[in-house]
Amino acid sequence: xNAVKRKGSRxxxxxxxxxxxVAALAKVSIATVSRTIxxxxxxxEKLAQRVWQAIEQLNYFPNTHARSLxxxxxxxxxxxxxxxxxxxFPELIASFEEIAVAHGYEILVSSTNNDAxxxxxxxxxxxxxxxxxxxxxxxxxxxxxxxxxxxHNMPIVLAEFHLDDPxxxxxxxxxxxxxxxxxxxLVELGHTRIGFLAGPHVLHSALTRxxxxxxxMHEVDLRVHKNWIIECDHTLKGGVTGFEKLxxxxxxxxxxxxxxxxxxxxxxxxAYMANLRVPEDLSVIGLDDIDFAEFTLPPLTxxxxxxxxxxxxxxxxxxxxxxxxxxxxxxxxxxxxxSTSLVVRGSTAAPAAEKSASKSKTSLRD
Length: 366
Hints:
Layout: E1 4-7, E2 10-13, H1 19-26, H2 30-37, H3 45-58, H4 64-71, E3 76-81, H5 88-102, E4 106-111, H6 116-128, E5 134-137, H7 143-151, E6 156-159, E7 168-173, H8 175-189, E8 194-198, H9 204-219, E9 229-231, H10 236-247, E10 255-258, H11 261-273, E11 283-288, E12 301-305, H12 307-322, E13 335-338, E14 340-343, H13 352-365
Parallel strand pairs: 3-4, 3-5, 5-6, 6-7, 7-13, 8-9, 8-10, 10-11, 11-12
Antiparallel strand pairs: 1-2, 12-14
Helix pairs in contact: 1-2, 1-3, 2-3, 5-12, 6-7, 8-9, 10-11
């Protein structure tokens, strides 16, 4: 809608700002405005800032469709995630969008809900919208669509899945470091009976996390009880189900590491309903450090996987591919590492037997 201005008793309609209006206000050429909007490196930072100030002052909205026709680039990046109902993924998408917008890109978001057909449909939408690259952050089950993307020479970034293809980049998640910290933390508290709620075996991330747990347990000379490793969904209900299976065993762990925070929060709920106290009767550790983790009762000790670092790695990988030159193709970084670390809160403590022993020693000293 055109802006309306009133002058005395007369009403005039201000013309809609266009690229010429922006150029006149910024005192630059139309070509400079166009290059600025299309993020051309030929425009100096000082000049670009002047153009963007004029754009903001005039409330001008560049025609993105026209831009893509002229430049041959959509400046849209796709991101496909596993399950939009898991808070980890909206937080990841928000970080990815923030970084992309800051660099002049838009994003197209799709969620697969672990459905192969939905994943195929997601990829079709990406191709129809002429995205410049796709971050497939489903952590498993990507194989059916990789060929579909490869046929179109689409730059891709995958999490924990390596493919020997020059258009594919990989983000490696260092689960081992965070899980090692978690196990060490429990051992230092006095726990020797440690269980693990694993995610679905079809997910690369779930297998990697389980392997990291078992490896760390061997490193600290603790027995891995196979019946204390329970596979469940990465959901609240999955945590409840996993907890119930553990409680049905004749012998149970005093501490539990969960494959993600949603599972761990499900365990907190199930423990409360079973009249078990966390952390007095059972210590619980999650993985992801979603925003909700510090607001549970008790606040959840968890292994932090930074959504910002993951989003930045995904964006950097796609941007390098989208803006590469043929001469520099062999120099493009193909692997990106995202670290993990333990965040200690209120859901872990010494096991009850250890606390009783400590109290007895204190009484004897008194």
